[in-house]
Amino acid sequence: MSELRPETRTVHLPQPPLNGSRPIAVPIYQTSGFVFEDPAVFADGMGRPDGPFVYGRLSNPTVRSLEEAVADLEGGVGAVATASGMGAINSVLFGLLKPGDHLIAQKPLYGGTATAINDLVRRFQIGVSYVPEDDPAALRAAVRPETKLVYLETIANPVAQVADLPGMCAAAREAGLVSVVDNTFASPILCRPLEHGADIVVHSTTKYLSGHTDVLGGIAVFASEELYRTVWHFAVELGATADPFAAWLTLRGIQTLPLRMERHCFNTRELALRLDNHPAVSAVHWPGLPSHRSHPLARRLLPDFGGVFSFDLVGGRAAGEKFMSSVRLALLAPSLGGVETLILHPATTSHRSLTVEELARHGIGEGTVRVAVGIEHIEDLWADFQQALS
Ligand SMILES: Cc1ncc(COP(=O)(O)O)c(C=O)c1O
Fold first, then answer.
1. Are residues 266 and 311 in the same domain?
2. Does pTM surpass 0.85?
């Protein structure tokens, strides 16, 4: 029995050392800080992303496990895990741009990113030019002396256009610009943008990487140490870094990522092909179909075409709404990348900030339905779609 009083013994709990074994699963280091024996080691951990663990906002072993796993999958030198995808995107944009700078982005972008860029423009006098995601000549023409950064998405929402990553990243590099690619829709199983010349990859790990619709998270992966350190400092300052429990759930999801992606892609192919032959359907937007404008590029860049597609019904908006209220298995809900099939109406939800003309320009109809395909049995999904179509 210790000589200390209960008030002290209940505070200083025992921590048995790991003697001769280690846990199979990555543990959740649910602590806000770390204890040191040597003050010099303590000091060493303060100013860098890969030093000793000091304080949870700077680093944590569970979070670092996630960062190392995703840096490895994407082929980067390091990664910064954040509390959400927007945490990663804003840490990169706000961390690398300053007032007076200019960036070039594709359009349309994920709505949260579009809003963040509008804020940069309005509040920080940062200029922006929009170019098509597959037009390196347009990118070259948009470069100004103050341009710093190019922002792309491997596969965009909801009609799944594919960016010409090799062409666009090469044009960015020739002009001395940092290229950032949101790889959320592809995941590193279908595409590794750093291999195509990107400098930074961002993900909403809320989606395929975690995969179970139960956690929010984001990550930025870097091709260079300099970018890694700069963005890490900013994410730490902003307080955008990830929590160990969220990181642990994401790590758990990553263990089945390749298996899930295989099923997401298989189910999507089946649904897209079957809908394309259905008399009630007027168009299917999926880059695996020869009719999709990104098909040649997608075939060159991706081993498969992802788990998100959209389609239009012959009956337009009314038919789209009827379909969405008639599905039973597919769920009417935001987000994507989880095991469940989710559908939504882009014109009134994810893309509601676009005008009717902008929607039309990007191939989004008033009745377009977006499907984020899950990993259910394909025949159960098809039966649900068929009954909703009828
Ligand atoms: C392509 C893409 N990037 C980024 C985000 C933002 O991620 P989060 O919601 O985790 O902040 C999303 C969310 O839907 C997304 O679809």
1. yes
2. yes
